[in-house]
């Protein structure tokens, strides 16, 4: 596409949630820095995506779907609201990556007969009124692995709790639940992801750092922290990678020199 066409379509599709570089000097100017998030999350996905079927829940403008397709995923289904799916299809066209199945769909309507090796769900869970049902729906369609990015409570006394947000959280009226870290890990195990590990963004991270998590929100609620959780249904000893620290009894049994990670 030529520059004039990209600029025209980009303006037609405002507002943008993600800040994406469409061309050399053209950015969508959304509030979310997708590059920083990808630099963190890419270290948690399998290094070899060839042959994998992937589900991207809440794909927004499709940035992460395009990234994973270019890494060799065989099939990607990406779901979100109609507005974001229009943006995602436009991004895929600009990036010449048009073999992703972008669908307007709720995760509550996922068909359990359709299976995926990896499901990613970034920045979605705290927007859902029924988080445990959502996690069960995710588990029903996921054969191997889930990557979940969400808000969690940071206070130690809250780690096994989940807080219901009656009014708003960070002035966002679409937030309903904020779980504690251990609470969310337990929920993932309960729906079938037997091995779970959590990875908080660094304190000095430019998007989810100390300024983001300290003190109280405008509504007087203790601030949470943005975190990525990885859940596996079973262990593949050839691709165990970052989760080995969660399973200390295996540390002496595995030959780390021969692990394909």
What would you note in describing this structure?
- It is a single chain.
- The chain has 261 residues and is an alpha/beta fold.
- The protein has one domain (32-258): Vaccinia Virus protein VP39 (Rossmann fold).
- The chain is built from seven helices and 13 strands.
- A seven-stranded mixed sheet has the order 7-6-5-8-9-13-12. Strands 1-4 form a two-stranded parallel ribbon.
- The longest helix is centred in the middle third of the chain and has 13 residues, at 82-94.
- It is globular, with a radius of gyration of 19 Å.
- Mean pLDDT is 88; it is low at 246-261.
Rg to the nearest angstrom?
19 Å
User: Could you say what the CATH topology is called?
Assistant: Rossmann fold
| N- to C-terminal distance | 38 Å
- Helix % is 10-25%
Structural class, from secondary structure content? Answer: alpha/beta
How does CATH name the architecture?
3-Layer(aba) Sandwich
Order of helix and strand elements from N to C terminus: HEEEEHEHEHEEHEEEHEHE
Low-confidence region ranges = 246-261
Please report the total strand number as a whole number: 13
CATH class: Alpha Beta
What's the rounded overall pLDDT mean?
88
CATH homologous superfamily annotation = Vaccinia Virus protein VP39
Number of helices: 7
Count of the domains = 1
Our estimate of the beta-strand percent is 15-25%
Largest sheet: 7 strands, mixed
Order of strands across the biggest sheet? 7-6-5-8-9-13-12
* Principal-axis shape: globular
């Amino acid at each position: 596409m030529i520059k004039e066409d990209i600029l025209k379509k980009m303006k037609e599709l405002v507002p943008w949630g993600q800040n994406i570089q469409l061309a050399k000097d053209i950015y969508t100017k959304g509030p979310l820095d997708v590059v920083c998030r990808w630099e963190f999350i890419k270290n948690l996905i399998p290094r070899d995506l060839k042959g994998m079927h992937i589900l991207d829940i809440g794909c927004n403008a499709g940035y992460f779907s395009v990234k994973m397709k270019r890494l060799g995923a065989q099939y990607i289904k990406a779901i979100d609201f109609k507005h974001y799916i229009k943006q995602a299809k436009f991004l895929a066209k600009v990036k010449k990556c048009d073999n992703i199945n972008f669908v307007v769909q709720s995760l509550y309507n996922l068909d359990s007969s359709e299976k995926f090796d990896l499901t990613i769900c970034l920045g979605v869970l705290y927007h859902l009124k029924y988080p445990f049902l959502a996690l069960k729906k995710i588990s029903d369609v996921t054969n191997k692995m889930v990557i979940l990015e969400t808000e969690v409570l940071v206070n130690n006394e809250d780690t096994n709790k989940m807080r219901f947000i009656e009014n708003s959280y960070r002035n966002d009226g679409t937030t309903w639940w904020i779980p504690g870290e251990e609470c969310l890990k337990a929920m993932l195990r309960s729906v079938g992801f037997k091995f779970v590990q959590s990875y908080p963004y660094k304190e000095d991270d430019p998007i989810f750092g100390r300024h983001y998590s300290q003190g109280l929100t405008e509504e007087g609620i203790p601030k949470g922290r943005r975190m990525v959780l990885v859940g596996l249904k079973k262990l593949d000893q050839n691709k165990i990678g970052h989760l080995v620290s969660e399973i200390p009894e295996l540390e002496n049994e595995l030959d780390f020199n021969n692990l394909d990670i």
